[in-house]
Write a structure and sequence with these properties.
Layout: E1 6-8, E2 14-17, H1 36-46, E3 62-67, E4 80-85, E5 96-98, E6 117-119, E7 138-146, E8 151-160, E9 167-171, E10 174-182, E11 185-189, E12 192-196, E13 200-204, E14 210-214, E15 218-226, E16 250-252, E17 260-271, E18 274-282, E19 287-292, E20 297-300, E21 321-326, E22 333-340, E23 343-345, E24 362-369, E25 384-387, H2 397-404, E26 411-413, E27 418-424, E28 429-430, H3 432-437
Parallel strand pairs: 9-17
Antiparallel strand pairs: 1-16, 2-19, 3-4, 4-19, 5-18, 6-25, 7-8, 7-28, 8-15, 10-13, 10-15, 11-12, 11-14, 13-20, 17-18, 21-22, 22-27, 23-26, 24-25, 24-27
Family: Belongs to the homogentisate dioxygenase family.
Keywords: Dioxygenase, Iron, Metal-binding, Oxidoreductase, Phenylalanine catabolism, Tyrosine catabolism
EC number: 1.13.11.5
Length: 465
């Protein structure tokens, strides 16, 4: 959708008001004064006072705070925004339980599976057969932890073909990091509108209501985290610059609709892993102005400043981290969002693709476009793989043979490709939908390593160059 405006900065204190209602943000109010001089003083002071909750809001709006952290959090981690809306969000009928479809937090549906898993591209339903919107098209692939204890993650696919009409979604359990793979999204939030295209991501933080418009067959990935918010990783020895720049994160500007819905507007709430629905007779996107640092945001992956090895050996994939959701253990994440963008490979005397390894983290990978360097066949856009904790994995046989004998000259790596990884310290369980119902599990995945052969030579001698 052309013409949308944004404000930039990650976690900034921002403010916005719909230009149709100038002055909607409370800037001050005149107190009652007995004398002329007191009135003048009160008028002057009112110009410098910023009210969050004035006795009477401009335009007759309601003030409502959305808190993303405890009130008593240290200032650097305190997240909240004030919304000035036509009607408060509390005006709705009671919530009732609704069908969750393939969205779940039941990690015990099937027995655990430690095998390396790969999925072919997940199917998108045809609009001619049945209309499926964003919420109806949510499918949980794997996850761990518990929303009630505020500690865990969920990984979902969305496959849909129609826009949400007079209904919106609200996640009380955690944050959604949305990675479109096919099809543009137009996301309407209480803070304004965002478009998100493949090779972009967006984050809708806990408690924010949003609705999704699509323009055809649409597919993507979602990383959900409970109990923590995404933040930029620490840079350490990298220094002040590199990876994702805070200024490249974009937040929507205020936009409201004052719309009655006689037939009922549905609010869908994800709460403790279940879905609930309630009705109200007006649009929830009635926020005329807002200010704060707790907002939805988007980011274009092409803006990522890649750090890479320029001498020898292979750097850890941590250098490709865009966002992290930290756990209480220093240096250990609930989840990291890591990308593998186009870059130069120049390392000397080095096997350049990812090395074989076993990891104390779970690694879920997806492919937005192109061909992933370590597995150019089989791993397809719209598909996925999961290498669970301590499950061995690495390049397939073709990749190993090719790169063991390749001439080591500077080369472009992953040109036209964008792969990503959701990495987590949790040992994730795969759902019944992921293992069986979706019918996209590639049961021949293990065969990509079968051709690996022994190159061992007990008579090998070091050749000096």
């Amino acid at each position: 959708m052309a013409g949308l405006e944004y404000m930039s900065g990650f976690g900034n204190e921002l403010s916005s008001e719909d230009p149709r209602c100038p002055g909607a943000l409370p800037e001050g109010q005149v107190v009652h004064a007995q004398k002329h001089t007191e009135l003048i003083l009160a008028l002057i002071l009112s110009l410098f006072i910023h009210f969050n909750s004035p006795q009477v809001c401009p335009y007759g709006l309601y003030a409502e705070q959305l808190s993303g952290s405890a009130f008593t959090c240290p200032r650097p981690s305190n997240k909240r925004s004030w919304l000035y809306r036509i009607l408060p969000s509390v005006k709705h009928k009671p919530f009732t339980l609704m069908s969750c479809g393939n969205l779940t937090e039941d990690w015990n549906e099937v027995e655990p599976d430690p095998n390396q898993l790969r999925w072919l591209p997940f199917a998108i339903p045809k609009a001619t057969e049945r209309k499926v919107d964003f919420v109806a098209g949510l499918h949980t692939v794997c996850g761990a932890g518990d929303a009630k204890s505020r500690n865990g993650i969920g990984i979902h696919m969305y496959t849909c073909n129609t826009s949400m009409v007079d209904r919106c979604f609200n996640n009380s359990d955690g944050d959604f990091l949305i990675v479109p793979q096919q099809g543009e999204l137009l996301i309407t939030t209480e803070f304004g509108k965002m478009t998100v295209e493949p090779n972009e991501i967006c984050v809708i933080q806990q408690g924010m209501r949003f609705s999704v418009d699509v323009f055809g067959e649409t597919r993507g990935y979602i990383l959900e985290v409970y109990g923590a918010h995404f933040e930029l990783p620490d840079l350490g020895p990298i220094g002040a610059n590199g990876l994702a720049s805070p200024r490249d994160f974009l937040c929507p500007v205020a936009w409201y609709e004052d719309r009655k819905v006689a037939t009922g507007y549905t609010i869908i709430n994800k709460y403790q892993g279940k879905l609930f629905a309630c009705q109200q007779n007006f649009s929830p996107f009635n926020v005329v102005a807002w200010h704060g640092n707790y907002t939805p945001y988007k980011y274009n992956l092409k803006n990522f400043m890649v750090i890479n090895c320029v001498a020898f050996d292979h750097a850890d994939p941590s250098i490709f981290t865009v966002l992290t959701a930290k756990s209480t253990r220093p240096g250990v994440a609930i989840a990291d969002f890591v990308i593998f963008p186009p870059r130069w490979g120049v390392a000397d005397h080095t096997f350049r693709p990812p090395y074989y390894h076993r990891n104390c983290m779970s690694e879920f990978m997806g492919l937005i476009k192109g061909h992933y360097e370590a597995k150019e066949e089989g791993f397809q856009p719209g598909g996925a793989s999961l290498h669970s904790i301590m499950s061995p994995h690495g390049p397939d046989a073709d990749c190993f043979e090719k790169n063991s004998t390749a001439e080591l000259k500077p080369e472009r790596v992953a040109e036209g490709t964008m792969a990503f990884m959701f990495e987590s310290s949790f040992s994730m369980a795969v759902t019944k939908w992921g293992l069986q119902t979706c019918q996209k599990l590639d049961k021949s995945y293990y065969q990509c390593w079968e051709p690996l052969r022994s190159h061992f030579n007990p008579n090998w001698k070091l050749t000096k160059k």
